[in-house]
Structure of Uronate isomerase:
Amino acid sequence: MPTFDHTDLLLPPEPGQRALARDLYALAAEQPIISPHGHVDPALLAEDRPFPDPAQLLIVPDHYLTRMLLSQGVPPADLGVPTRDGSPVETDGRVIWRRFAAHWHLFRGTPSRLWLEQTFRTVFGVHTPLRPATADAVYDEIAARLAEPDFRPRALFERFGIEVLATTESPLDDLAQHAKLAADGWGGPGGRVVTTFRPDDVVDMEFEGWSTNVDRLGDRAGEDTGTYAGYLAALRARRAAFIAAGATSSDHGHPTARTLDLTPAEAERLYDRGRRGEADAADAEAFRAHMLVEFARMSLDDGLVMQLHPGAVRNHNRWLHARHGRDVGGDIPQATEYVHALAPLLQRYGNDPRLTVVLYTLDEDTFTRELAPLAGGYAALLLGAPWWFLDSPEVLRRFREAVTESAGFYNTAGFVDDTRAFCSIPVRHDVARRVDAGFLARLVAEHRLPMDEAAETIVDLAYRLPKRVFNFGKGQTR
């Protein structure tokens, strides 16, 4: 895996702890990358075509970057972000790059700047600092690298030291790209690139086109989704297809963490109201909540690990959604309650060690008060790493400080990069490993943990835990 040229980046400033952290980090740095949750397009690796120009690769698809510029009055269309109606956007990569470089100062102190600078240096070997005056020079250096065979996606995958990369697809996806990866020896069960079952667009009645999506689900699965029983059968069939394509987990991005254990008759009535177009917001929330319990039941049958990513208000920036669609930076975190919300699921299945639920949050306040005690008290529950708006070095440190006392290290599930930006994957994992090295070094320096146990722990956090939790590797079980 590429390493930073700043040897002590993010390591503790106190000399004694820094020396310990260096040794611990060295152990983590040599571990392969396990990436169990992300949004890289599988076509990138299935087709293995050369990357486009630097702007199309690094700026246009990265909503971390485009949303910051939008906040300062630069419309996404000026950065090449496609529009829903096909109206013109900037297509000249060099123009986009210059415009971005002119606003580079906006990213001072942000994780986006850290990730991007280290991507320049460690992936592309570009050490020229990005400034408005150097925009063309940096662009040309990266463009020259992208023209080389060693910078195609599969070659970079190997150089990054990625052992497993999980993408995320809807049950409506035909998984053709994963079939191609399997045919090339890259995908399928136990493969290097696997899919993840993400059913939000057929579960959330408030999702645009939900009822039409449910019809398509039935067509894809060969089941009659006109009935609730047929709907469940279709979901089970698609889960089986995803498992055949290598999936080891499902992912659920609900607005809240609410769960609800309805009777089949109650769930059927909700479903029928939704199909008739009569469901209101309360019905939609109840159905989402019930389906989380239903998916836990399915996981006991088929073994998929459940990932729950609640707490995002989707498309809060309605202008942005109307103009450019979903997943372009218009989402905002909200306060999220877990103790009561998860109680129905946990009372039903939380003590069953056959079930694994990896729980994430966008509400940092819940780390100590709710999440760590929950994970420390239920066999089925593990904590996912800080995610999305929280995936910064500062919050990664606070996460360890907040949850370790109640949940320990081994009720967490390892780091997830949660990115569409393929070239940033090694950088993001390296940041997490450096932060963990610093936290463990402090425990050693305070005589709270011997060095040999700290060394074992950091390898577990970087590699062994996520591999085991997500069932990557033949015979791996939790």
Remarks:
- The chain has two domains: 52-148, 153-470.
